[in-house]
Design a protein that fits this description.
Elements lengths: L1 H13 L11 E8 L15 E13 L3 H7 L13 E15 L15 E14 L2 E12 L5 H11 L16 E11 L2 E4 L5 E14 L2 E14 L17 E16 H4 L14 E12 L3 E10 L10 E10 L1
Antiparallel strand pairs: 1-2, 1-13, 2-3, 3-4, 4-5, 5-6, 6-8, 7-8, 8-9, 9-10, 10-11, 11-12, 12-13
Length: 323
């Protein structure tokens, strides 16, 4: 039921944007999980807080008038120009799972509640050689309709993990919305033309508003390696048969006004915790880019998000993008 609803929402939202003009579609998949913390022994890897996330997105260059008016840029987005300046439209489906630290049938005082999110998103972005501007709007559901409970239980059953016990107390079903803007601007670009080694440094920022979250994030990202993409770019700026091997790193600070998964449901009474207004995060990872796509693994160490959270939480992301 929840997946069908999100699929219909994605199709409806997609119709709001004009058809794309160039057939270079990029498929991008992001998998978040604390089970991907490969430096830890499997038995000690956490299964808590932001426990799991899946995001599947399609990106396609666009010549649509509406997108051009929002983001500017050239009238056309030919494949040989994508590296330098290109507008794109994106469609995405996301599922996220949040769990407390203690796995118990009754939620303990100060523990975040079990919660799930299933949403569809439509967006427009402009990637230039030295900057990024991206707008997106998402709508989705929480509660049983998010299908977070059966998804987590199925994974635990498949890998013989302990069965989760507290989903009976998850946040209730509710329709929620989110609008976002994110950007980046390269400030440092050092390159050795003979070896292909590059160092890039860029401030990045994100603004979000809606019933899912309202917050602002400011940070910095760096990339070092052999012919690497810019910190915010992926498979869309591949040329010819080029290969890249690179390291990524970054740090950010978020000011939080609202977080549905901590503050509780918007329109009904539900479990909640006292959130922290400021949350820091550091990231580090490695990436490989080929003519077929991009593969990355990143580790995120996110600070305590609520007052009674025992410790900071580390999780990892595996990303691959194919065109």
């Amino acid at each position: 039921m929840g997946m069908r609803w999100v699929g219909r929402a994605a199709m409806t939202l997609a119709l709001l944007l004009p058809a794309a003009g160039v057939a270079q579609v990029v498929t991008r998949v992001e998998l978040d999980n604390d089970s991907f913390n490969f430096w830890q022994a499997p038995k000690v890897r956490a299964d808590r807080e932001y426990s799991q996330g899946t995001r599947i997105a399609l990106l396609r260059p666009s010549t649509g008038r509406f997108v051009r008016r929002m983001l500017g840029g050239p009238d056309h987005c030919r494949s040989d120009a994508i590296v330098h300046d290109c507008r794109m439209v994106s469609w995405a489906v996301t599922q996220a799972i949040y769990t407390p630290t203690l796995d118990a049938r009754r939620r303990q005082p100060g523990e975040r509640p079990y919660a799930g999110w299933l949403g569809a998103e439509v967006g427009a972005l402009r990637e230039r050689e030295h900057s990024l501007h991206a707008l997106a709007f998402g709508i989705g559901v929480t509660g049983p309709a998010s299908m977070a409970e059966p998804a987590q239980k199925a994974v635990h059953r498949l890998f013989n993990f302990q069965k989760p016990q507290g989903w009976e107390t998850q946040l209730p079903s509710e329709v929620a919305m989110l609008a976002s803007y994110r950007g980046a601007r390269e400030l440092v670009h050092l390159a050795d033309q003979n070896t292909g080694m590059r160092l890039m440094l860029a401030p990045v920022w994100t603004l979000q508003a809606g019933t899912v979250a309202t917050d602002a994030t400011l940070g910095v990202q760096a990339t070092l390696g052999f012919r690497p993409p810019a910190p915010w770019r992926g498979a869309t700026n591949m040329r010819g048969d080029r290969w890249s091997l690179y390291l990524r790193g970054g740090a950010q600070q978020t000011a939080v006004a609202r977080n549905l998964f901590l503050d509780g449901s918007t329109f009904t009474t539900s479990a909640r915790v006292e959130k922290n207004r400021y949350v820091a995060q550091t990231d580090i990872g490695v990436g490989l880019r080929s003519p077929l796509g991009v593969l990355e693994w990143q580790v995120h160490n996110r600070g305590r998000e609520y007052r009674m959270q025992p410790r900071a939480h580390a999780y990892s992301t595996i990303t691959f993008a194919l065109r």
